[in-house]
Amino acid sequence: MTQYGTVLEYPMDMDMAIRYWIFIFLLGSLVLSSCHPVPFQKTASDKKTLIPSEKIQTLSVAKKIDGLQLKTLGPNCWNGALVKAGLIHSVRFVSKGEYWFWMNSPYCRKLNSSEKPQRGDLGSLFWPDRGHYHSFVFLDSKWVFSKNSPDPKYRYEVQRFEDMFYMHYKNKAQKCWQDFQSRSQENCEFDVQFHQCRPVEEGFYKTDSKVVAWDAKIKLLEEKVFLWVSGKANTRLETFERTIGDLYDIWREVQIESKNEFSKTRKFKLEALEFRLIGLMLSDVEIQSEESIPSF
């Protein structure tokens, strides 16, 4: 994958642990700038609203993220959107690059300005000086599904569309919200784009025996990552670090394989595998320090 391969190709005789640390250092900064809400001055109208139970209906097979609160800094808004759309199936970090990899794929199409978003469509918020910085799942004109930050205090949850909008558009939110409602940009320089996506098919990675084997290994490691980030099991730090090490080994194999000449379909699936592996390795940025580099 060109986007990461060019940056992360280090001499093969360099110590593996050092290369791993450089890898985490380069990519970890992505988390710190992703899906973070901008603080705003709350008003009396920003009170907690009881969410109707019928709004908590899952949009895909991804029931496990409804209301989920994690213990790690990493999994973010782009993860919640892609999981709910059925494009990926693991709770982990998702980069902006991976999000647009899927939005620009045959699985999604951008709605034009005359089309109204439908339940399950993915929305993306843009700000002039920051570009795309937040995504969510549209439910209806009043409700969305969103994780508002990679910060673990923010849940994957259904929330009022207006509340999410106010959180991300700071003190200009009222004018921006009015413009959004009227489909104009008279008072606020912002943009909201919507995409309609279909889930990836069953057996997406059944390309050949090598890809099938990688997918099977990654699925087992995804479960271990989920147990760590969710705090659902008393997982030792050393165990999680070994999991990261196993993911790194597979990532290196996939990266080498990606340099060969293959069909567009196989290249697409290898790139999806690389994004998946990178996202899993960055699902707890706070522990990725020199003291916690796994042994290879």
Topology:
Layout: H1 2-8, H2 16-32, H3 77-84, H4 96-103, E1 108-110, E2 122-127, E3 131-138, E4 143-146, E5 157-160, H5 161-168, H6 173-182, E6 191-197, H7 209-230, H8 237-258, H9 264-281
Antiparallel strand pairs: 1-6, 2-3, 2-6, 3-4, 4-5
Q: How would you describe what is shown here?
A:
This protein folds into 2 domains: 2-32 and 203-292; 53-197, Alpha-Beta Complex (endopeptidase fold (from Nostoc punctiforme)), CATH 3.90.1720. A hairpin with a 4-residue loop joins strand 3 (131-138) and strand 4. Helix 5 (161-168) crosses helix 6 (173-182), helix 7 (209-230) runs antiparallel to helix 8 (237-258) and helix 8 packs antiparallel against helix 9. Helices cover 41% and strands 11% of the residues. The chain has 296 residues and is an alpha+beta fold. The two termini are 23 Å apart. It has a 6-stranded antiparallel beta sheet with strand order 1-6-2-3-4-5, with helices on both faces. It is globular, with a radius of gyration of 20 Å. The chain has helices at 2-8, 16-32, 77-84, 96-103, 161-168, 173-182, 209-230, 237-258, 264-281, and strands at residues 108-110, 122-127, 131-138, 143-146, 157-160, 191-197.
